Amino acid sequence: MDSHLAEGVTPDQVDRWVQSATILHSNGDGLDIAVKDGQIVGVRGREVDRVNHGRLGPKDLYGWQANHSPDRLTRPLVRRGGELVETDWDTAMDLVVRRSKELLDEQGPSALGFYTSGQLFLEEYYTLAAIGHGALGTNHMDGNTRLCTATAAAALKESFGCDGQPGSYTDIDHADVIALYGHNMAETQTVLWTRVLDRLAGPNPPELLCVDPRPTPVAREAAVHLAPLPGTNVALMNGILHEIIRRDMVDHDYVDAHTVGYEELAKRVADYTPEHVADICDVPAERIREAAELLGNAERLMSTVLQGFYQSHQATAASVQVNNIHLVRGMLGKPGAGILQMNGQPTAQNTRECGADGDLTGFRNWSNDKHIEDLAAVWNLDPMRIPHYAPPTHAMQIMRYAEKGSIQFLWISATNPAVSLPELERIRSLLAQQGLFLVVQDIFMSETAELADVVLPAATWGEKTGTFTNADRTVHLSDKAVDPPGEARSDLDIFLDYARRMDFRDKDGEPFPQWHDPESAFEAWKRASAGQLCDYTGLTHEKLRGSGGVQWPCNDENPDGTERLYADGRFWAEPDQCESYGRDLVTGAPLEPTEYKAMNPEGRAIIKAAEYLPPHEKPDGEYPFALITGRTLYHFHTRTKTGRSPQLQKAAPDVWVEISPDDAREAGVSEGDHVEVASPRGVIRARARINEIRSGVLFVPFHYGYWDTVTDEEAGRRDRAANETTVTDWDPVSKQPLFKTSAARLRLVGSGGGVPAPAPTTTASRPVGAGTTETTGGPGAASEERLGGGTR
Ligand SMILES: Nc1nc2c(c(=O)[nH]1)N[C@H]1C(S)=C(S)[C@@H](COP(=O)(O)OP(=O)(O)OC[C@H]3O[C@@H](n4cnc5c(=O)[nH]c(N)nc54)[C@H](O)[C@@H]3O)O[C@H]1N2
Ligand SMILES: Nc1nc2c(c(=O)[nH]1)N[C@H]1C(S)=C(S)[C@@H](COP(=O)(O)OP(=O)(O)OC[C@H]3O[C@@H](n4cnc5c(=O)[nH]c(N)nc54)[C@H](O)[C@@H]3O)O[C@H]1N2
Ligand SMILES: [Mo]
């Protein structure tokens, strides 16, 4: 069991252990919070938990310290004479309510927008969805899940008719091949990775396939590592499918009984020979054959997909090809044969289920009037109150409407777009506009809160009760351990307070939402989920208390939850049932209900093919590098929590840029030198880390914004956040922005005096020459990386 307690505190001094789960990734590791004298003083892993069996990762062990950081927001703030000043809740909420009512009267609900998170609790999202889509009737509601797992949801809908992960983490225990696509699991889901490492060290170890342009710890363990040029995933996947089909490593019985679309796929990938694909991806053709061989011979294939696929221009098309490999090989619904279209944030699954993003509550279908009526009945509202004339506005479009002035009220909760959205100069200026009334609900004075008209101080994890669901559908309870600081209030209380002050009513004139606390919100949600794929009716807060997590669907038929979906080869895809009729994978154009019915009358799994298109912004003479951005082990996003945990902050104190040895030599750059990375949008300055990243590619972690750049020299400078450089563009199907494909140039600014870059040395950013003990680590392997991958 992993545990960390504050210095000087011993386990016997702990007053209480309070059940919860981890919140700085999507793994959902069960933990207990240690409480002493009304303060959180540590955590320990829960051995009874099905997900982690007591293990915890570095962020979980140290991240909780941020909760009692002295600079937590403790009172509401309002802008007066240009300055944010403290006030009381009545004053702040009155302002929010007054502006809402004015805009509702003058312009209607479309003047109001909501941008939320993947980090609140289920009860909070359900409440927000009911307020936004139900009571107010605005179409403008989305989550930062748009930046995170919109593609996971889209890929699942395209292939299986509905969101919901088919697989289970236990598939790792059974698989003989594990494929990780654009997923640096070793750094982003550390406990899940230890489960993989256990298998690798045990009897009958599985073989790994890693698809990632960087030498991640996953790549180092892989039997086959493909390092394609960023933005070429669809070509690569089509090449692998080409080989699998050419060599007839296809489960024709499964395909015939349970799928539609196989012929179309076979036709579409016919031209994608390994040689052709090798040219596009700059990966040796032989390596593509090896990957196909591995996948095609697997008896129990487990796949995970994450941001290397989701945050690029053909995100959904690429992710769907992973589903296709499973469908053509009949690798679903049995132990070891699982797909995880991964989540990133701890509660992103709930944002989607509850419909606090572009989805409709309970995985209902926006284009199916019966589903709207059904939800309206659950809410006891008139169906016409739920806007469904068009698909809900996605986050990037919400920002566009705010920029243009049609959205004049924007309520942002638990996300920090002034650091996490692309093209920050634009985001800062549109959020700061005079005409936009900006409400920011956070636990710290984030870069976004700095721009707000009203700042609402929230209580967070450990200070409130609620449930959340991880990437393999495991539901956990997180109980309140301590009181929030000052006057901070839970997000649920804030949303409900708004609803009461707005005096929303249901059809019977009763206050809407009809619930008032976490437990009644959960009970209400159960009614909304009843009979849907994400059925929670068999769960209660009490049942989860003490448990090791339960996987939905959990209902009368499955009282202990459900390990794998679609075990019987039946999908949630019947025309009357499905969450979406699907889209064209290349253009994003939605299918009409009649088209869907004609294509898939029996509700089978859908094998959908896609042509490869090159990225819109490719390296050229002026911007010769492909710039990718992402994560490091020790930090979470914009570091509002991990940057306030001394151990984590020390492990990765400042931004860096990863450069290959060849590229560094050509630019005259040595380890630790100061360099400038410029894209057509903006410039950042960072220190150079020379590592085994493939040539032609630069990597910058996106964790570093401006809240802790406090020295005189740094104050006011805006050249540290990766998103100064990224592009305003998105996948046409999922609308997820492209954080992993832009073009950039590199320039030496000054010597670092031989001091290494402030980057960790044990992660994907490990410097060249370090740690040659691992399988692909030596200089020979490094040159193979530069050719686009290696074998073990
Ligand atoms: N330590 C840590 N863990 C986290 C988080 C965190 O901030 N820090 N955040 C959580 C969240 S919200 C998320 S969404 C997940 C994200 O978890 P991951 O997706 O694992 O993390 P990223 O670093 O964003 O991207 C993964 C990999 O994609 C690769 N990549 C880039 N471009 C391409 C490409 O074109 N093709 C391919 N195949 N690969 C490419 C990158 O080299 C990178 O190693 O992590 C979760 N866990
Ligand atoms: N360049 C680049 N950009 C990216 C990515 C990338 O890979 N590259 N990844 C994208 C992805 S996958 C993600 S998920 C996003 C993440 O981007 P963000 O969501 O903007 O990042 P966070 O730092 O997690 O912001 C969460 C905010 O919520 C606050 N908060 C924490 N807990 C609570 C709570 O309980 N209540 C309230 N009200 N507030 C709380 C935190 O203090 C913080 O300000 O970034 C995206 N942006
Ligand atoms: Mo994410």
UniProtKB/TrEMBL annotation:
Molecular function as annotated in GO: 4 iron, 4 sulfur cluster binding; metal ion binding; molybdopterin cofactor binding; oxidoreductase activity
Record bears the keyword Iron: yes
InterPro entries linked to this entry: Asp_de-COase-like_dom_sf, CT_Nitrate-R-NapA-like, MoPterin_dinucl-bd_dom, Mopterin_OxRdtase, Mopterin_OxRdtase_4Fe-4S_dom, Mopterin_OxRdtase_prok_CS, Prok_molybdopt-oxidoreductase
Biological process per Gene Ontology, one example term: nitrate assimilation
Region span, Disordered: 750-792
Family annotation (Gene3D superfamilies): 2.40.40.20, 3.40.50.740, ADC-like domains, Dimethylsulfoxide Reductase, domain 2
SUPFAM superfamilies: ADC-like, Formate dehydrogenase/DMSO reductase, domains 1-3
Biased composition (Low complexity): 760-776
Transmembrane segments annotated in the record for this chain: none
Pfam family, one: Molydop_binding
4Fe-4S Mo/W bis-MGD-type domain mapped to chain residues: 15-71
Record-linked PANTHER family: NADH-QUINONE OXIDOREDUCTASE SUBUNIT G, RESPIRATORY NITRATE REDUCTASE
Family, similarity comment: Belongs to the prokaryotic molybdopterin-containing oxidoreductase family. NasA/NapA/NarB subfamily.
Protein name in UniProt: Molybdopterin oxidoreductase
